[in-house]
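Q: A reviewer asked whether we had any structural model of the full assembly, not just the individual parts. We don't, so I'm hoping you can provide one. Inputs are below.
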Amino acid sequence: MAIFIDLLLNALVIGVLLGGFYAALSIGLSITFGLLDVVNIAHPTMLVLGAFIAFLLNSTWGIDPVLAGIISTPFFFVLGWLIYQVYYNVFEKSGAESLRGLAFFFGLLFIIEVGLIIQFGVDHRLVEAPYIGQSWNIVIGEEIDVAIPFRLLVAFVVAAIATLAIHAYLTKTFFGRAVRAVAQDMMALRLMGVDPIRVKRIAFAMGVATAGIGGALMIIVLPIEPSLGRLYLGNVFAIVVLGGLGSISGTLLAAVIIGIAESIVATFFGPSWAPAVSFGILLAVLAFRPEGLFGKTAGAH
Amino acid sequence: MSDALLKIDSISKHFGGFTALSNVTTEVAPGERFGLIGPNGSGKTTMINCVSGLLRNEEGKIIFDGKDVTDLKPHKRTGAGIARSFQIPRPFHTMTVIENLMIPAEFVGHHRGEKGDDRAEAMEILETMGMAEKADDTTLDLTQIELRKLELARAMAAKPKLLISDEAMAGLTGQEVDEVIDILFKMNERGITIIMIEHIMRAVMRFSQRIICLDAGQLIAEGTPEEIVKNKDVERAYLGSTDG
Amino acid sequence: MEIVYEQNYNPKTADFTPILRAANAKKPDAIYIASYPNGSAGLVRALAEVGTDAKAVGGGMVGLQFAGLMAGLGPMLNGIANYDFFVPEPTMNLYPGASALIDRYQSKVKAENLKVDALGYYLVPWAYANLDILGQAVEAVGSLDQVAIGKYIRDNEFTSVVGKIKFGKNGEWERPRTLVVQYQGITNNDLQQFATPGTRKILLPADISTGDIQSFNSLRK
Amino acid sequence: MKYTFEIICMLLIVGLFVLTQVVGNQFYFFIGFVILQYMVMATAWNILGGYGGYVNFGSAGFLATGAYTAVALINFLDVGLVEQMVAGGIFAGLLGLATGYLTLRLRGVYFAIATLALAIILETVVAHWDYVGGAAGTSILPKRKPELLGELIVDRKAGIFANYKEYLFFLMGTVAIISVWVARYIENSKLGRGLNAIKDSEEAAECMGVPTLRLKLIATTISGAMMGVAGAPLASYLTFIDPLSAFNLEYAINAIAMPMIGGTVSWAGPVIGALLLGTAQQVSSLWIQSELNLLIVGVVLVVFVIIAPEGIIGWFRKSRQGSRR
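A: Here is a predicted structure for the entire assembly that you could use as a starting point for your response.
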């Protein structure tokens, strides 16, 4: 029984930490897809690009990966700015069907991935930092020992700060409210003297910019290789949809739910079942509650 | 009016906690020109979505042509004789104008066992609308008024007994409004019952024989255009809405 | 042997501490891991974070032979016993041409800045031997007739940079030559230490062994 | 002539057969199989995606369903390839029907994500199904004593085909031709016109008498079944199959990219896309660098959606219209 409690407690702690990490991976997509309705399926691969930049900075100059992520964030902001410029002019302006926009990002995904393969090869890469490979043990009584790996703790703390900052920015500032309004009523914004395209461009760039810090967390938590983004494709979309489109706090909560579900399933049934659980939750939500767990508007229309 | 074509029997519709329609009852007689008015958000579109089947009313019944259609899917109702246009035109934009008309002709007509020349019938409808020349154009080349006419033409191609025209004139010029009203009169002369949802009072008053007014999901007035104009509740509803 | 715990993982598993914890709960004497690079690295980190009382850990962990992962994981590898193909231990120098081949490979990697294994021990000698054997067979047969080449390769013993090779009835090597090595004495993340003898002691095969297996925890720290 | 297209199809099948008898180098059949398999996948995807506007991200799941149905059948009954393909088609078709039911309220991106999720769940289940090899995969060796018609089919000396590669190539070619015929038939039928209406506006279609749900279910079933048939010979072709290779996202992207490049409005689009992109990928990965085939898909896809949104077919139609005016 004590062993069961020990395992459960550890699974819960790891699940919450993992949830924070997943939130950092998903928050950018929650902005671009959830708020702006731009289906950036290249987002996970942009995260991997961010991870490789962190690797480069870390292995060349020994820069701490978290710092490296902060350094690369402006670069991703500019990248997002440029991508939206193309996306808007080619697809959105002409009212082109979403199918083409989807295909555009699908193509981008493979271009970034192969670009990484050509530059870095297919080997797995790691970063060095003093907190990787260490853990913080909390011993309760005789049998219970909760170990918190520092790499997950660092990822969790950084992710929590970043996502809460974005959440606050989007809910408390004028620009943030404009971003939230842009998806619903472009006309109203125009009447208020705000250029909705500019708002969307900046917001999209913000969403992509999270790939800098998110990618850095990725390489802190696990070894990365160029095609890793594909594996996370389903996961981040699952979290954003589960959280409800347009809801940043919903994304956070959904990330933690998926994190805990995966961690508990991994502990008691084996990690290989974890994706079936998270995607099973997603499918069930889509089939019975398409607006997501915390969404307010109907997602099916 | 026991021989009504359409009977709406105390229907209600809720979205979450919001009540969009509350216990609305009314009837439309065969061949009637029926007006539906009300301020923005009063439930007009919700009501006709319930009639055409895009939404399901949670309470009440909808009887069409003597049959209960409350649980039928929209395409079955179209087959039974209810056709509609959309407020914001929704043409089949990858098809030509005449192909747009041949969709209902093929799916509704053939379903009823009718075997005619779809293309010729579609052309005839386009001619009555003055759009015959546009038959082979894509819908992307159409003007606003042509799109509105296409909405009505496509609904006509379903050979309806009841045609619901959902704000077919919004945003049109005065002359264009008259053009659309003429088309609707022509259809009515062919024996088609018409429900007109409209914001343009001039059009509704001129066209309708009888009008109902919705406000906040409730039926607040019913009568001839003259009666509606004088109705205090209607006035209040519209004035109230212009304040906000 | 009694199996107390057995589990699969999927390739995108971000954290392996739950699986190791669940395994530890069954108090195993040995942990056998068959993993791909992501899992290998994840489990090595989990072993550093959670630890284990098992006496032997390792087995078929793909990826720990890669230069990038070895350098990245560094001292976390100590104590793990894993398969390998070619390591810079003195007994491997018995084979003619092996060290010359690796020197040549490493200088080419450096000179042309190739995005490949910087050390070149893991697969390079075997890849070279593959083609070398095919080449020897083609020369001996004197034609490109596939059936004849196949028969020659099955029937003869070859001398290569990885020693003498003869194929058995089932198509595998007649005498298995996969190494089992144990990581020890790794102190930092410098890649060059893996190019010198001592960090990966050969446990098996016995005839070229350079050390005996030690318990997992005795080699940690 | 009324049956011109059918006659061309027959001639093409005969032509494929002649190829297998004339060309000696197995290598061409080896790469030809892949291109033809992609042609089936692209054609199948286009029935739902191009005609109906429903983007399936989970194509790999349907292909893998076919592949694993075949593996299970080999283990269970040891039946031949043709039977495997029929069974693969049936099971993947049923999966398509189930997908249709499960996602009937979902549109656009939501449908795409749901299909992706479905594929991942299937992959997880297959990875745990030891009967078909589980996560580690299983080897499928071509049988020494084939087939529907006994040893007559594949035999170096006495058979119709000298080796398995020729036989697989011929079967996949026949399936590709039949798939294209089916797609063309649908395109010109009531079903095709109804799907088009759904793509343009589902609500308007429903209100114009189109039974949208029924048509969608028919489309998901046919599309899924085709992909299943295409996937059934995969294990025999690779001689080894594991969940990672059967559920590879590359199948999904190619099934989308090929019709988009060729043009989604017509059956010819996926065919052209598969021939161009499939050939380019095979050539680049065999003779230049294996990663390049993915780069090619990516670049070509991005370039096409930007400069030729209606694909090659749309591009041709436009330039023809332009010259007429």
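A: Points you may want to mention in the reply: Residues 2-35 of chain A form the longest helix (34 residues). The beta strands of chain A are 135-140, 144-149.
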